[in-house]
Amino acid sequence: MQYLHTMIRITDLDASLHFYCDLLGLVKTSQYDSEKGRFSLIFLAAPEDVELAKERKAPLIELTYNWDPEAEYKTGRAFGHLAFRVDDIYDLCEKLQKNGVVINRPPRDGHMAFVKSPDNISIELLQKGESLPPQEPWSSMENTGSW
Questions:
Q1: Is 81:121 a contact under the CB 8 Å cutoff?
Q2: Is the confidence at residue 78, as pLDDT, over 80?
Q3: CB under 8 Å to 109, separation ≥6 — which residues?
Q4: Residues forming a β-bridge with 127
Q5: Rg (CA), the chain
Q6: pTM of the predicted model, to two decimals?
Q7: Whether the bond into 137 is cis, omega within 30 of 0
C-alpha cells in the first residue's frame, strides 16, 4: 500500500493557488482539466518532495476545483488538519500575516502554529529541527478563532 494524496475541494482556484503556492511555498506538479466533467485537479508537493512526487513516491495535495459553483463545502469534525515542516516558522507566519492570513494559533513556542486556507482548511506549521527561541510579537499573541 502507498499513500498517494489528500484531496481538498476549493471554491476559488486563484485564491487557493496563491495561498498554497505563493504563500506556503508548495509547488504545482501537475494539473488535469476535464471539459466534460467541468472540473480541474491540481496536484501540489512540498518543495523537498517535488522530485519524488514526479515518480509518485511522495504524498501530494490534490486541489479539486469544480467549474460550476456548488453549495458551500463544509469540513467535517472528523477531519483535523494538514501539517508541514517549515524552515523558519517566524518568517513564514510573518509572510502569511502580511498577506492577510490570520495566524489562528501563533508560534509562541517557536515550534508550532496554525492557519487556515481560503476554504477554511486548518494548516499546522511545525518548525524544522529544534524549536526557535520565543520572540515577539508571537510569544505574547493570543489565539484567534478556531484551529
A1: yes
A2: no
A3: 131, 134
A4: 86
A5: 16
A6: 0.86
A7: yes
Catalytic residue numbers read 124
- In angstroms, the CA 91 to CA 88 distance is 5
Alpha-carbon 9 to chain mean position: 13
DSSP code string of the chain: ----EEEEEES-HHHHHIIIIIIS--EEEEEEEETTTTEEEEEEE-GGGHHHHHTT-S-EEEEEEESS--SPP---TT---EEEEES-HHHHHHHHHHTT--EEE--TTSSEEEEE-TT--EEEEEESSSPPPP-TTGGGPPP-S--
Taking CA 104 as the corner, what is the angle to CA 121 and CA 85, rounded to the nearest 5 degrees?
Answer: 70
Sort 38 into a burial class: Cβ within 10 Å, 0-12 / 13-18 / 19+.
exposed
Domains of the chain: residue spans and CATH: 5-66 (3.10.180.10), 82-140 (3.10.180.10)
pLDDT-wise least confident of 77-91, 114-128, 129-143:
77-91
The length of the chain, given as a count of residues = 147
